[in-house]
Amino acid sequence: MKKNWNEQRAIITGAASGIGLAISKKLHDLGVKVMLCDLNSEKLEIARKAVGENSGVLCVDVTDLKAIETAVNSLVNQTGPVDILVNSAGITGMTNVKSHEIDPANVDLVFRVNFFGAFYATRAVLPGMLRQNYGRILHIASIAGKEGNPGMMAYSASKAAVICMTKAQGKELAETGITVNALAPAVIRTPMVEAMPPAQVSYMTEKIPMKRCGTLDEIADMAAFIVSAEASFTTGFTFDLSGGRATN
Question: N or C terminus of the chain: which is more exposed, having fewer CB within 10 Å?
Answer without folding.
Answer: C
